[in-house]
Structures are given as C-alpha cells and as structure tokens.
Amino acid sequence: MARRAISASVDTSNFHDYKRQWLIKWVLEVNKRFVNDLLKPWVDLNKLLLVSYAVQPGLSEITRAAGSIAVALRHVNEQLDDKTSNKELDALCPLISVMRDAGDFYKHGRLDKTSRNCPIVVKSAFEIDTVGGFRFLRNIVYLQHATYGDMDFMQVSRDVIKFWVDYKKIDVVWDVVVGVNNGSFLPKAFLTFDQRYCANMHEFTLCFFKDVGGGVLEPSDTDFNFELKILPV
C-alpha cells in the first residue's frame, strides 16, 4: 500500500518576536539585579559612612555591607553572562583583581595564595585644623591587600562598577562621588556607638588628616581629645 506523504508547515513568525521579547526581559532583569545588588547598596553604604559611628574595625554592619558588595562584584561577570577571561578583564581594569580577592577573602577567609589575602576593615577619619579642632570626615573602609597595601574600598568598588557599566553598556547613570563631611570643627573628636550597626565592639581605630593646601589631606599624627557616646540598647 502506498503511503501518502504528510507535509506540515510551522509558523515561525511569532518565534522571533518571542525571542526578542525574552531578550528584552532578560536585559531588564539583569539591569534590575545590577541596581539591586550593586548600585543601591553602594549608595546606601556611602551615606552610612558619613555618620560618625564607632565600630569594631573588622566586624560591623559597615564591613558586612562592603563584603556583600565585594562578593557581588566578584561574581558580576557571571550575572551579566560575560565570557571574558579573568586575565583579559584584569588587563582592561586592574582593580577587578583586587575586588576579586576581597570578595573571595570575605566569603572564604584566608586564601591558599596568601598574596591575595584582602581583609576589609574600618577606620574613623578626622581632619584636624591649625588650632586643634576636629572634624569627622567619614568612616573609611580599607581593603588591606597583602600585595597592594591599603586601598579605599569605596573608590575601588566605584571604579569597578563604572567599568562594568561602560563595558556591558548597562543602561544606568553612574556618576557618583565618595562622600566626605565638611561640617564645623569641634574641640573633640567624637563618635557614637550604636549596637544596631555593631553588635559587639571592644576596639575601634581612629586616623587623622590635615589639609596641606588646596584641599589635599595627608595623614597626621596628633594628640587629641576624644569622646565616645554609647546609645542605650
């Protein structure tokens, strides 16, 4: 018995529309996650650092927030589905390797390759004037990299985020500056301990700077008057 061939046609006109819609949806979702996981946390941390809280150098809400940003930046190429090798990325933006080390150290602790170790710590920074007054500048988050030394986390993370915004052409505006207070000078250096931002503190670190002209601040050793206010739980 002869078999009759069966032919069928498939309408693909809607497939390309679906694929395009899916791609647009994926891009929008990536942008949302980038904003949620990196941009907003960075802005929130930038504001928090302007409040004169006393915190344990390596364990507080500040280091937790910075560590979360570091881990997010460590894996942002996966989130963005970027296949560029680490070697190529490091050539394009050397600070990426610093943030990679910071993210790995925060997540895993001491690393097998000790030259990559990069703890995150906080120091409370004050400017001193010529008559012994003190102005709180900000809490500075430092990356204490075993190879590259101390680096300002907010500056490094801002620049790495900026690289990814430009490199992947992410549709956001990222024109931010690291915040610094410019209030009045006071007779004492003053910090507040608030358990909401640091559950357990047995030490904190102060650092002092002086204006050497043109708004340039350099580290300075000085005698100082200091007061710590402890808020009730």
UniProtKB/TrEMBL annotation:
Taxonomy, superkingdom: Bacteria
Protein name: Uncharacterized protein
Organism name: Pseudomonas proteolytica
